[in-house]
Amino acid sequence: MAVAIVAVSKERRYPRSLPRSFDAYTEAVYTPEQEFVFHAAPPEWMEYAEELKSAADALFDLDRDVMVLRRDELRGVRTHSTFSRPSLLLAALATENALKSIAVARHPELVRDGRIGKPIETHNLVNLANDVIPLPLSEDESALCALLTELIPYWGRYPVPLRAARISKEIPSSAELKARIDAFFSRLRKVFDDAVKAGWNGPHDMTMGPTETITPTELMERLRSDVTDE
């Protein structure tokens, strides 16, 4: 028998039919493989993507006001933004999660047998878009994915890469770069919405019904109405 996935999140997209509570019957009903699918369902990836993007936006707003002056014998005097790298790293991770939400929506087999499929065991956003989903990219989107792919394992987190041959120029955050990221993320969100609007048939008999856009307030009113009807 198919098990319905509860997909309640901050993203304002919810199933039309809401089971009571996942926590109430977790171990009694779900096998380990099914519980894995529950947590790896497309809305879970997108929820993480939106939370990371919100955090990136908040840091970008702070980034314009906080600068640090550094001086050393090797590079002399230079100004350094406190939040440039963290905000771009969060934006890159948000984009990665958004791409993986689409990949899992279109290819449910990527989360079967209690593990993440090898095609999405990567931080390479270009490969995720071109080879795994696949999703046609514009020239600018390809360049953006390449930039975000570079910063995730390297200058978004560490001062040097694993090998000297991989040293590259760090790109600071800017309004222009943020606008490019915002536009691409909005496009990914629309692709995701289209991919799950009719529902999702995951592995191990895990399914998600059609979704609709409602506000969190409307969701709470619906849940209260369901309880009252009982």
> From N to C, what is the helix and strand string?
EEHHHEEHHHHEEEH
The main sheet orders its strands as 1-6-5
Average of pLDDT: 83
Name the shape in a single word. globular
Describe the sheet with the most strands: 3 strands, mixed
CATH fold-level label: Four Helix Bundle (Hemerythrin (Met), subunit A)
- Summing up helix and strand content along with how strands pair, one would put the structural category as mainly alpha
CA distance, first residue to last residue: 25 Å
Number of helices: 8
CATH class: Mainly Alpha
Q: Could you give me the name of the CATH homologous superfamily? A: Nucleotidyltransferases  domain 2
Helix content: 40-55%
For the record, the count of structural domains works out to 1
Question: Can you describe this structure?
Answer:
Mean pLDDT is 83; it is low at 1-27. The chain has a single domain, classed as Four Helix Bundle (Hemerythrin (Met), subunit A). The two termini are 25 Å apart. It is built from 8 helices and 7 strands, in the order E-E-H-H-H-E-E-H-H-H-H-E-E-E-H. The strands form 3 sheets. A 3-stranded mixed β-sheet has the order 1-6-5, covered by helices on one side. A two-stranded antiparallel ribbon has the order 2-7. A two-stranded antiparallel ribbon has the order 3-4. The longest helix is centred in the middle third of the chain and has 23 residues, at 84-106. The protein has 230 residues and is mainly alpha-helical.
